[in-house]
Design a protein that fits this description.
Elements (H helix, E strand, L loop, with lengths): L1 H105 L14
């Protein structure tokens, strides 16, 4: 009888141990799955950040190119403006010289320099 009770006790303990083992195995599997999901989320997050960084660099490069192009256009227009201003001044001086010569031809005197007003 005592043997029967001991066997029942061992059988009961084995069932408890089996149940505990199943619970522990289930818990380990849950932990493995959780760690796997965390790694996957981290990998996706890193990939997203890399993608965002590349897009940011692309946009920065585009803006820098536009600014450089605008600066180039401004420089070109500025030099063209200077060229046309210089041409306009030269044309104005030539016109003044012609007018001055016409006035002098009507009553030409060599007492003063006829181009003195242009040399200023």
């Amino acid at each position: 009888m005592q043997r029967l009770q001991e066997e029942e006790q061992k059988d009961h303990e084995r069932k408890i141990e089996d149940n505990n083992r199943l619970l522990e195995d289930g818990a380990r599997e849950d932990v493995r799955q959780y760690v796997k999901r965390c790694k996957e989320r981290r990998r996706l997050s890193l990939a997203f950040r890399v993608k965002e960084h590349r897009e940011h660099l692309r946009v920065q490069r585009r803006l820098k190119e536009k600014a450089l192009e605008a600066r180039h256009e401004d420089s070109t227009f500025h030099s063209l403006d200077q060229k046309y201003v210089a041409l306009a001044k030269e044309k104005e001086r030539a016109k003044a010289a012609i007018n001055h010569l016409q006035h002098l031809s009507q009553g030409c005197t060599f007492s003063r320099n006829p181009f003195a007003s242009l040399l200023d």
